[in-house]
Amino acid sequence: MQIKVVNGAKSPLLQICVSNPVVSVAAHRSSESGHRMALANIRDRLEALYDGQAKLAIEKNAQRFEACLTVPFSEEVS
Q1: How far apart are CA 50 and CA 1, in angstroms?
Q2: No. of H helices and E strands in the chain?
């Protein structure tokens, strides 16, 4: 597993990416496609919480599955 957190010095966004190797369908024994309900629910919650300013991006190829969450970020100084 690989985790990457990115926040540019002047960027109002925080991006967190998690990347894993893809497990073969034969070894996993479940449907590869699933129903995608969890992803839809997460996107709906992000929309409600951040008023369209956050996003969840999913990328998959033969070797890796990566999910990147981007949310508004501001540094508060107390």
Answers
A1: 27
A2: 2, 4
CB contact at 8 A, 54 and 42: no
Spatial CA neighbour of 16 closest among 6, 24, 25: 6
Nearby residues of 16 by Cβ (< 8 Å), 6 or more positions away:
3, 4, 5, 6, 68, 69
Each residue's pLDDT tens digit in the chain (78 positions)?
888 888 876 778 899 999 999 877 555 555 556 667 888 999 999 999 999 999 999 999 889 999 999 999 876 655
End-to-end CA distance of the chain: 35
> CA-to-CA distance for 41 and 18, rounded, in angstroms?
18
- DSSP E strands in 1-78: the ranges are 2-6, 13-21, 55-60, 64-72
- Quick one: which of 36, 62, 46 has its CA closest to 14? 46
